[in-house]
Write a structure and sequence with these properties.
amino-acid biosynthesis, WH_DNA-bd_sf, 10 helices, D-Maltodextrin-Binding Protein, domain 2, two-stranded antiparallel sheet, single chain, 304 residues, Arc Repressor Mutant, subunit A, nine-stranded mixed sheet, alpha/beta
Length: 304
């Protein structure tokens, strides 16, 4: 069955005659009659009661009309949405984050973005229980916030900002009178981290593992505020981005130390290359950068 058949049947119902239906859909009466006969031959049953005035439909015809009423509006709406996407006014932006601390700035950015792009379908999730970047490559996601880019075909990485990773300790900790810490000074510490693989954590990848050092013990916490509470109460130390620590430093809850001569990383927005030029994607990246620059302390945004 073709879409043209459904359109023809709706025109017949709405006008009550084959002649007027033909005028409505810009066909000849013989072409409309041919379409109906073709469909009846395929289905081996009558669709119209031709002797009635106006033309009425058989039970089989009524079934087809119900199908037309369901399918044709959906097709029309989908085509409109595609045209909006092509024109850059609508689309889908399903976001995942690999950085726990990013909730702090991502939610305000999303709320602000919704006001400017009401036609974009927005959704987001954390990437802690699945691999977001392969999901992005497969089209299951549209944007991933990550500090750990990996080469993937069809995936581009747009830098958002650079940040410094710092070690948070209690204000009563023996290291609290220092501005820097070195790997060997952490051998007797309990290191509190997010529940992710060590290789995805800056303090391991860039600081401890190259020095062949591991802490005495480790424990995990899901939320940044939980990590800070544990640190402030002297139950361990943790490594977080400088901007994530700023609020707690101002409250004198913790002290922050640089990791050696400094460990810096870049946070990226990963998107499929085919979507990179979309207006709504570019605007999200731009507005995220602006929001971060205005609200996060200690970050550096490079000119692009």
């Amino acid at each position: 069955m073709d879409i043209k058949h459904l359109k023809t049947l709706r025109a017949i119902r709405d006008t009550g005659s084959l002649v007027e239906a033909a005028e409505r859909i810009y066909l000849t009466q013989s072409a409309v009659s041919h379409q109906v006969r073709e469909l009846e031959n395929r289905l081996n049953t009558a669709i119209l009661n031709r002797k009635s005035r106006p033309v009425s439909f058989t039970p089989a015809g009524q079934k087809l009309l119900a199908l037309a009423d369901e399918i044709l509006p959906r097709i029309s709406n989908t085509l409109d949405e595609i045209q909006q996407m092509v024109g850059g006014t609508a689309g889908r932006l399903h976001i995942a984050i690999e950085c726990h601390s990013c909730f702090q700035w991502l939610i305000p950015s999303i709320n602000q973005y919704r006001e400017s792009w009401p036609e974009v379908e927005l959704d987001f999730s954390s990437g802690f229980n699945f691999e977001p970047l392969p999901a992005l490559q497969q089209g299951l996601l549209d944007l991933v916030v990550t500090s750990d880019p990996i080469p993937l075909e069809g995936v581009s990485y747009e830098p958002l900002f650079q940040y410094e990773s710092k070690l948070a300790v209690s204000i009563r900790h023996p290291l609290a009178n220092q501005s820097q810490v070195w790997p060997e000074q952490l051998v007797d510490e309990t290191l509190i981290t997010y529940p992710v693989e060590k290789g995805r954590l800056d303090i391991y990848r860039e600081f401890l593992l190259p020095a062949g050092i591991k802490p005495r013990a480790t424990r995990t916490a899901e939320l940044t505020v939980m990590m800070i509470q544990l640190v402030a109460s002297g139950r361990g130390v943790c490594c977080l981005p400088n901007w994530a620590l700023a609020e707690y430093l101002h409250k004198d809850l913790i002290h922050a130390l640089g990791l050696g001569d400094g460990v810096w990383a870049t946070l990226y927005a990963a998107v499929r290359t085919e979507q990179l030029s979309s207006s709504y994607v570019q605007d999200f990246i731009s507005s995220a950068r602006e929001n971060c620059m205005e609200n996060l302390e200690g970050i550096v945004i490079q000119e692009t």
